[in-house]
């Protein structure tokens, strides 16, 4: 899949959340998007998935501007690029496996989905997805009974049920402790490698981007201020992104256990 962002922009009233975002992803990669709060990271992902309408520019996926799709074609695109959110967005009182099967709803006719008539195949696929994420034993529990890290893995299993061609993860580990953050990032990386699909992941933390991503785009005030290999993400590049002065402390943007220990 080839993705070309061409001057993608979003203005809220007079506030320019994303300005002229231009970049090309010409093979399936794990792309990290980093930057301080308000840099435009969420808005970027929401525009790609059409949860937020762009006010300018284009997003060409294999040559088709997905921002111009309407009706069924738009819904198919939204199924093709599964979203994962910081707050998991599960139905708390429903059991885990049903939450996962909800990922199939887009592909079902409305009557069948209203009556909860999931096919046996959907159940088998949901259990397989949970197994892949190492949480099959929790299938029958209510989603709310699981830890944050487990809930995020349920959300990833639900995303897999869409058979996505791309995964957009908006701060998927921001609510998690370091150990669960690692498990969730490893799961996303494995999916990228096994399925050969692009994963675009908004992250707050530099070390996570360095560890799990192939390429990193740094945003500040809606603009790209860094675009390079994860290995090029030096402390001085990070200063540029975060706008921090000489006192910039990497550990402050870190979730790793080592870095936390170093600041304690
Ligand atoms: N619905 C909205 N209405 C008005 N302004 C908005 C809206 N959504 C986002 N913004 C503004 O757009 C800018 C970018 O926000 P966005 O949430 O994309 O940033 P972010 O980098 O994802 O930040 P965070 O890391 O805090 O989630 C911010 O200035 C924000 O206030």
UniProtKB/TrEMBL annotation:
Q: Which UniProt keywords apply?
A: ATP-binding, Cell membrane, Membrane, Nucleotide-binding, Translocase, Transport
The UniProt entry, under SUPFAM superfamilies, shows: P-loop containing nucleoside triphosphate hydrolases
Enumerate the InterPro entries for this protein. AAA+_ATPase (IPR003593), ABC_transporter-like_ATP-bd (IPR003439), ABC_transporter-like_CS (IPR017871), ABC_transpr_PhnC (IPR012693), MetN_ABC_transporter-like (IPR050086), P-loop_NTPase (IPR027417)
Which SMART domains does the UniProt record give? Answer: AAA
Matching entries from Pfam families are given as:
ABC_tran (PF00005)
What GO molecular functions are on record for this protein? ATP binding
Top-level taxon of origin:
Bacteria
Q: Outline the extent of the ABC transporter domain.
A: 3-246
Q: What is this protein called?
A: Phosphonate ABC transporter ATP-binding protein
Q: Which gene encodes it?
A: phnC_1
């Amino acid at each position: 899949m080839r993705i070309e962002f061409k001057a993608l922009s979003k203005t809220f009233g007079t506030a320019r959340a994303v300005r002229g975002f231009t970049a090309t992803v010409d093979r399936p990669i794990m792309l990290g998007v980093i930057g301080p709060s308000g840099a435009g990271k969420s808005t970027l992902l929401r525009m790609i998935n059409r949860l937020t309408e762009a006010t300018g520019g284009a997003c060409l996926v294999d040559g088709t501007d997905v921002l111009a799709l309407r009706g069924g074609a738009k819904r198919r695109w939204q199924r093709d690029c599964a979203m994962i959110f910081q707050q998991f967005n599960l139905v708390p009182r429903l059991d885990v496996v049903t939450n996962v099967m909800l990922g199939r709803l887009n592909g079902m006719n409305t009557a069948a989905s209203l009556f909860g008539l999931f096919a046996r195949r959907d159940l088998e696929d949901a259990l397989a997805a949970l197994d892949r994420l190492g949480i099959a034993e929790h299938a029958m529990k209510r989603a709310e009974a699981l830890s944050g890290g487990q809930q995020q893995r349920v959300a990833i299993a639900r995303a897999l049920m869409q058979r996505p061609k791309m995964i957009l993860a908006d701060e998927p580990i921001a609510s998690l402790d370091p150990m669960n953050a690692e498990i969730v990032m490893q799961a996303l990386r494995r999916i990228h490698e096994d399925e050969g699909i692009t994963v675009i992941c908004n992250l707050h933390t530099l070390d996570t981007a360095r560890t799990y991503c192939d390429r990193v785009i740094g945003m500040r005030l809606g603009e790209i201020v860094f675009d390079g290999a994860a290995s090029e993400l030096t402390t001085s590049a990070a200063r540029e992104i975060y706008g921090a002065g000489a006192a910039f402390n990497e550990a402050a943007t870190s979730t790793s256990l080592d870095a936390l220990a170093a600041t304690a």
